[in-house]
Amino acid sequence: MIVFEEESSSAIEMKSLFPNGDGGIDILDSGNLLCVQSNSRIGAIFHEGSILNASDYKVYKDWLSKASSSPSLPLQFRVVDRKEVIMSYRYLPESREINANRNYGGNVGNYIWEYGATNLLNPFTTRLVESKDWKTSVFIVAQANLFLVNGEKPNLEQMMFNQANAIRERVVNYDLPTIMLGIGVQIEFGVAENVTFDERYASYHQLLHEVGTRHKSKSIAVRGDITENFCRNSGFHQCISLGCPSLTINRDLNLGATLKAKWNKVLESLREVNAARKIKVALTLPAIQMKTNYDDYKMFVDVLLSLYRQHDSYFIMQSDYDEYQLKEYTKGEVDESRMLTFKHSVEPWFDFISKVDVVVSTRIHGGMAGIAKGVPAVIIPTDFRILELVEAMKLPALAVDTIEKERHSSLINIMEDAPFDHVAFEANRRQKIKEYKRILEDVGLEIDPSLSAIVKQ
Predict the structure, then answer these.
(1) Could you tell me which of 195, 204, 133, 115 has the C-alpha nearest to residue 168?
(2) Start-to-end C-alpha separation, the chain
(3) Residue range 82-115, pLDDT digits in tens
(4) pLDDT per residue over 324-382, tens digit each?
(5) Could you tell me if 79 and 85 are in contact, meaning their C-beta atoms sit under 8 angstroms apart?
(6) What is the CA radius of gyration of the chain?
(7) Nearest to 222 by CA among 194, 180, 188
(8) Residue 11, number of CB atoms within 10 A of its CB
(9) Nearest Cα to 224, choosing from 371, 434, 364?
(10) Phi then psi for 266, rounded to 5 degrees?
(11) φ/ψ (deg, to 5) at 316
């Protein structure tokens, strides 16, 4: 990739090249394509009707060198090699095999997380591979839930220990510069912040140690301040609180302002009786088993049902038990056509959510689906993990104790009790993108050009 600096972008002619279009080129899969980047625009280089390959660079180099020294045509540029990278849990588009794996159920919100992590990388200077060879340069551990700290659930803890050990073995076997994205501690509300990874959590300690020995800068992106404190209290200073990678999906240069304008528009409509009914709302159900925690399930779902009755509302089924529980609890009140499942990929989810006015979510990625498409969202943190992420990303949130006290029954009251500071959100978003950019650059990788454009403002 030949990357032209911003001040010289007007000196080259950029034309669109559509991957896999009619007669087009799959620019991402071509391993021998010489690409050019100017600001956030990407293209191929044409010379006398032919596309230049990477092996043709020496032919092009002389012209570039002469042009860069010409006072009339100053071209400042740098050359970036395409790196091969292994990424765990990367997002893969739909296929028969992928869909078969996803048919086993689980939380489809994880696909939002995977999508955000995968699309951090510049696809024109990065090639994701499945196994290591002599060309592989970096290992990216993209992992959300891992550090479970709950002595009352020994079986779950052991499962997470095994997972941490498996990741550590990959880190050791690959022996590459390694970074981590989105990792987080799982604890209950009220657990002291000064808790450390003691001897029982040796698996977590060993994993952090192996990553730390292969990269010395702050290269472990964790989901919030509590996880960063856990790491620091345990002797690891390479963790940095960056929230969820899904915060980077939207490439709006000022997403905070866009969300605030739509937020205000919803509030204006809510104050007009005729317009309020037409507001389109996406709702996500809590990750709570109704049989074992009925009171909490009832409290949260009753709030969501009040919105369903007042607006043009749809429930998003994130977990495989959501539909059954909602039908059981509501006794058929919710029409099945308003229970939506996006089982195999995030793209249809994004398409739908882009057409709603607001999201009210008891799941973090249900809310982040809205943020990713520029739709305002209010998130209700029903567990510590969600609370940590909400605080790290400065998202509008309605506290559980506020719901317990107020028992909200209207959207306007929910939004008024969860104010949105769009200036703080946007400043925080840009700072986090800047840190992602630094983490990638520290291991010789490039962030997606459209994300780089956000922090260049």
Answers:
(1) 204
(2) 23
(3) 889 999 989 988 888 887 777 666 788 889 999 9
(4) 999 999 999 999 999 999 988 899 999 999 999 999 999 999 999 999 999 999 999 99
(5) no
(6) 24
(7) 180
(8) 16
(9) 364
(10) -65, -45
(11) -95, 125
- Looking up tokens 């700072």, which residue turns up? 431
Determine the longest span between alpha carbons in the chain, in angstroms: 76
What distance lies between CA 214 and its chain's CA centroid? 25
The per-residue pLDDT for range 9-19, each reduced to its tens digit, is: 444 454 444 34
How far apart, in whole angstroms, are the C-alpha atoms of residue 337 and residue 323? 12
Query: ∠ CA(427), CA(413), CA(388), 5° rounding?
Result: 40
φ and ψ at residue 262, rounded to 5 degrees: -70, -35
Q: Length of the chain in residues, anyone?
A: 457
Which of 214, 217, 135, 143 has its CA nearest to residue 176?
A: 214
Residue written as tokens 């997606």? 448
Q: Name the burial class of residue 173, with classes exposed (0-12), middle (13-18) and buried (19+) by CB atoms within 10 angstroms of its CB.
A: exposed
Within 13 Å of residue 213, how many CA atoms lie on the same side as its CB?
A: 9
pTM for the model: 0.88
455, 434 in Cβ contact below 8 A?
A: yes
Q: What are phi and psi of 397, to 5 degrees?
A: -140, 145
